[in-house]
Each structure stands twice: as structure tokens, then as C-alpha cells.
Amino acid sequence: ERMFIGFVKLMDLYAMYRDMGVRFFERNIRSALPQTEAVNRALVRAYRRIVLDSVDDPSVFVFNHNGVTFAAEKVEILDGKYRVTEPRLLNGAQTITTFASFINSNQDILSLKEKHSLMDQLRVICKIITEAQPEFVTAVTINNNRQNPVEPWNLRANDMIQLELQDKFRDDLGVYYERQEQAFESLSDEELEDIGITEKKPIELLKLAQTFLVADGEIDKTSWMRRVFEDDKIYNQVFNMSRLTADSRKILLCYKIQFRLRRIMNIIYEKGPSKYGYMSRARHLLWALLCQGILNDPQLEKIAEEYGKDMTMPADFTDYLCRLATTRCRFLIADLANHKDNADKISEGKFSFLRTNASYKNCMDFAYKRWKWVVKRLK
Question: For residue 214, which of 127, 134, 138, 288 is within the disulfide window of CB 3.0 to 4.6 Å?
């Protein structure tokens, strides 16, 4: 591995972002933070004080900035200048995107020669990593992003399975898979169109992991998602390669259930407040059973074609989920609650059993006896 380090014009980094768009950030573990974050507000103040108000000297900026890091295929020295091939930003996304937003918001003023000259003097310390394997680049990315909290799922954003899932959902459904935190909202409509995205809402990495878990009946693991991403064995079970051959429509059907769970639980509760008072404690169990209800529906292909090809939640699909919940799933959970091993627990206000894999398996046993449901997985 090699590293070049030096001072780089902020305008040059902005030019890379302007020309490359989303590709410039694709090796980062997350995209830019929201503009309302303290870091971004501080950057805007710095740009304003230097460029618009001429209060601070441009050279002050590099003293106050942590610097940026990016990886590149190669760096060549040509006639005293450096040519960088295929740069990918590893740290500093908020610096670049906030600077781009600042330019867009002040175009009239910044077109003045003296203001443009001030911007051209803004520099940051820059590290460029070359001749490095992907694993090494990932480690550099993680360690250069610790100034803001890094969640375990952020560290998985550039895993090969995540990249392939992103391609899968784009190619199959035109849906953006947000493997990098905040990536979707940083893309313009034009950029989304350019990469083949037609839907206005993304599939999120953490919520997809929960979808795979409940569909697999692993509902106990939904309570400790950090461990799911920290433990390689568990993570590889959740994001195994067979997901890439699963029907994307069916994955999306199960994914979208979570957006109506509260309403569905309320409908079941209203059918007997004293009988179903525990339903709010069975959220993921209900989600898992709804997944199995859909996957065991004889009309699955028709349902997938109607409701599994986009991110919308039409009234007909919500009605279908409510019927499935009230005519099937609530009876399974009631059978579980009335079981001799659980009735006393409910009377004592102990509901933790509703969040166990054993309870899911018991419910599926009941479902097989009632309607011949069998466990089906998203793969």
C-alpha cells in the first residue's frame, strides 16, 4: 500500500464530485450527514466567513479542518502535477456536499471574480491511498470515520453481498438499496434516473436485515441487531448468497409489511382488548407470521406481481395484510397465548416468550395443522 499526503484545493475535490456524482462516494461506509448536523453547520459558517463575509483568511480553513481521505487506482506525476485515476472518497463527504450546496445557494455572489478567487484558495489536508486491496481500503475507511459514531451495519456497507444486493434491487425492481447511511437523500432525481432507479423510496440495509430475520423465523435476533452485524457467522446467515437468487418481489412484499404493523396490531387489539392486550409485544412474531402467510398463499404469484414491484403501499395491499392478520395470524398467536405453558406467564404480565424463536415454531406448527402452512424462506 502507498499513501500520498498533501494540500488539495477544495475546488478540485468539488470538481471530482461534480463530474463523478454518486460514484465518488461509493467506497464510503455512509454518505453525507444531513445538512442540519452540527458538523455541516460549522462548515457552512466557515465558508461564509471566508468567502462571503471576508472575515477570515482562506488559509485558516486548513488549520481547522481534519482533512479528507480517498482511494485511487493510481497516482501519476506528470509535468509537476498529480493525475489521480478513479478516486473514491473514504472520508469527508460532508465537506464536499456542504461545499457543493454552498456554491449552489450563492451562485450569483460567487460568480464575482474576487469571491471565486477566495474559494480557489481553500485547501484541505488530503491523503490518497493507492495499491491497496479492498479489505485494506475498508479498514482505512472505518478508521477515518470515527469522529462520528459508526454503527456495525455501517461497517458492512461495502461488503460484496451488499454491493450485489444493490445491483439486484436496481436491476429487478428499479429500487435503490441504501447500503450506505444517508446515501439516497443525497441523490438528485437526475442522478437516480442515470443509475436506473425509478422508485422514490429506498430499501434500507438495517430494515432489510430485519426482514430476512423475521422471514427466517429468527425473531429473537431482532432485539440485538448490533450483534447480527458484529458476529460474522450470524451476519453470513442473514446475508447469505442465496438471497441473490430470491425473487425480489417476494422480498419486497415481506419488507413492506413493517410499514403497516402498527395499524394491523391495533385492528387485532380492537377485536378484543382484554384478549389481545399483549399484541404490541408480539410485533416481530406477527411480522414473521404475515411473511409466512404471504409466502404460503396460493395466489402468491399474483400478489407479487401486483404489490411486489414498487415501494408503494396501496390500500388493497393494506387490506390484504389486515385480512391475513385477522383471519389467520391472530388465531395462531392466540393459540400460543392460550397454551398451558404460556397462559400463566400472560396473567403475570410476562411477555418475553412472544419474542422467541420457539414461539414462532409453535405458531408454524399450529399453522400447519390449520392450513398446511410450511416454513418458506426468502432464497
Answer: 288
Quote the pTM value: 0.74
Question: Binning pLDDT at 50, 70 and 90, where does residue 146 land?
Answer: low
> How does the average pLDDT of the chain come out, rounded?
91
Grid coordinates belonging to 6: 498533501
Q: How much is the pLDDT for 182?
A: 82
- Rounded to a whole number of angstroms, the distance between the first and last alpha carbons of the chain is 38
pLDDT at position 34 over 60: no
Per-residue pLDDT tens digits for 309-322: 999 999 999 999 99
Which residues have C-beta within 8 Å of that of residue 74, sequence separation ≥ 6? Answer: 84, 85, 130, 131
pLDDT bracket for residue 22 (50, 70, 90) = confident
- Between CA 7 and CA 62 the distance in angstroms is 8
Q: How far is CA 332 from the centre of its chain?
A: 32
